[in-house]
Amino acid sequence: MAQEKLLDVVDLSITTNVAGQVRSVLSGVTFDMGPREALGIIGRSGSGKSVLAKALIGWIDLPLRVTSGRVGFAGTDLLRADGKTLHSLRGKRISYVGSDPTTIFDPTVSIGDQIAEKLRAVRPEIGKREAMDRVLELFELVRIPEARMRLGELPSKFSGGMIQRAAIVDAVISDAELLIADNVTQSLD
To answer: In whole angstroms, how far apart are CA 172 and each of 23, 24, 119?
Structure first.
């Protein structure tokens, strides 16, 4: 029996228009992944790794343009899906953690509360206390120092490495089927 495909990328090509000149960013990218599989993409700076990561969640905006291909996730082409469909997938079935965690957290709300709220949005049957306990467990797992105290702190109190670890917790808290990690070790200390 053939393994079911969770992610199916076929002939993905993306260009950009820089000063009136069209340049290829990705050309003919094809791969697939089944559930519980991992894939690492390596390449030089500027080779298109982050563009690929964003294409995998349907975040391609101008000046980038998809010129061909398909990004299938569980039967949905993410490049052609409407906003409502993408919203229903992102954060629930697909999680993304980028290389710049400073932009994902509200600076006026504690990080613990923000992540617990995300978990409760995905799984409303979980109470606030249970959600916060799960955030604490994950903070400890990614080795955030003094994890219990950090739950109540604002993002400005976290070092670059700690905020990146919190972003990883934010991405994995929902137990999504697909986790896309874009250069997540860049700011770890």
So the answer is: 35, 32, 10
pLDDT band per the 50, 70, 90 thresholds, residue 3: low
Pairing of strands 94-97, 76-77: unpaired
Q: How far apart are CA 73 and CA 89, in angstroms?
A: 9
Show the tokens assigned to 149.
Answer: 């105290």
HEC string of 43-109 equals CCCCCCHHHHHHHCCCCCCCCEEEEEEEEEECCEECCCCCHHHHHHHECCCEEEECCCHHHCCCCCC
Helix 160-172 and helix 128-141: axis angle, to 10°? 130
pLDDT tens digits, residue range 102-140? 888 999 999 999 999 999 998 999 999 999 999 999 999
Cα 31 from Cα 175, distance rounded (Å): 23
As a residue count, the chain comes to 189
pLDDT in tens, 42-72: 889 888 999 999 999 888 888 999 999 999 9
